[in-house]
Amino acid sequence: MDGTTARVGSKAAEGREGAAPGSFRDRDAKLARYLEDLKPIVLEAFEHDDVGTLPRPELAVRIGQIVTEATESDSAILNLLDRRNLVAALITWLLHQSPKAPPAPEAPASTPVPATGVDAPAHDILAPRPSHREASETRSSGGHAKSGPPSISATVLETKDRIEPSVMERLDISAASQLPRDELSHQLREIVNEVLAEQKIRLNAVEQQSVVELLLDDMLGLGPLEPLLADESITDIMINGPQQVYVERRGKLEPTDVKFRNNDHVLNIARRIVSFVGRRVDETVPLVDARLQDGSRVNIIIPPLAIDGPAISIRKFAKKSITLDMMVRQNNMSEAMGTVLKIAARSRLNILISGGTGSGKTTLLNALSQMIDERERIVTIEDAAELQLQQPHVVRLETRPPNLEGTGEITMRDLVKNALRMRPDRIILGEVRGAEAVDMLQAMNTGHDGSLGTIHANRPREALTRLENMVGMAGINLPAKAVRTQIAAAIDMIIQVSRMRDGMRRITHITEVIGMEGDIITTQDLFVYEFEGEGLDGMLKGTFRSTGLRPHFAPKASYFGLERRLMECM
To answer: Is the pTM higher than 0.85?
Structure first.
């Protein structure tokens, strides 16, 4: 903005000669002159933005910064009220320059809304169960999507860092933490105004409120992370020490301008996160899994294990649940694959979802779970609860780490054993990673059909091998053939999902477990993804191909009246 300030300052200086400083007439003339001088600069600043869609607070912050820098040298003749009036006039002018988009034509009342994905009647058994949570959220928000956070100017950030020590000195932190956010915001605003006046810092009303919100985020929220958590386009947040924060958008990593003051600042945020779920992180427990209040999954590792400072990895909780139909539209799989997965879930197959880190295993698990009947009792078991099941009858279980004395730990295996005594219709394991594989296989083989789980593996055959190794971790001395027989009898289908180099997540294999031939588990692929090349836009090209084989679970699909639709997809 240095060039902006110089240009406006030089034009304003031409009109200062012969004017009586401080006179109303001179002030009005100055405001009119500044308004005309700033119009082209403001227009240039917003030339790449759709001004009509920007929230007014964001316009006020960005235009306020331009006005502040341009009128800084004329503080004697332009007071705070004059600057506010100038900002308001520029906002009004800018909105009138923005072309109005034509209103979208309304659909006739008699036109039905088309079903997504597979065209089907309302009573279709493959239609996902309605989400009570989504319906209530739509009603509470009036049907409007929540917009992302407005950008924060450098002036606001600098002011917040400058006045924060003085504000904290005048605030009773212990008493403040007990107040509701609205009441604390009101009291904090008064203290901020006092400190700004003492330090002779001039901010408009919008900027003052932004400073208050930043201070509240530091006191009650997660400080610099709050804007990133509010941005719905971000799926992952990675903090590598105080000066390096990355995010993932559309499957690609990118750096951000977010900074922490120092390692202690990052550590304080980490301790605030784990305190929400009754856990701790310190030198004796330097790594921990936790979750945020909205359900986002968090992993924290601190020194001495993390050499360059505390590292925090956040897998954000999706505000809008992903369905199989949405995955078809996004080209994560073909329409035929989506229908087969719906039939598999409806037919109560035991399904294992395989993939690497960040490949979308949990997202696919959530999508499959939407096909579960609302009348069924579901028990979920996770290290850090993150599943988003929409059914009303769900019991969520979460593991517990040991206490300071090293006792009191509750493992996944303990929870699986307990779940079998809870009369579940389906058991869902967030991730199979150890000895609990034995109990999961036993559950699948003892009448708990339709159970789901995820596992880290790169191919379907590798998932079976890993499952066999996990059974060995339980310390049960069984012959290899006995273990493989139990796996073949328990698992009906493996879905392989992969995040590819273009950032797109695709289902690469839908594989059935057929049975045993000698000592070997036999499988057959129903669908595979065949890579064909790369487009000019950098996106990979490929085909979701059906192998044309008759599904081994066709008799089960027939029992549920779905065999005909299954064979149509093959």
So the answer is: no
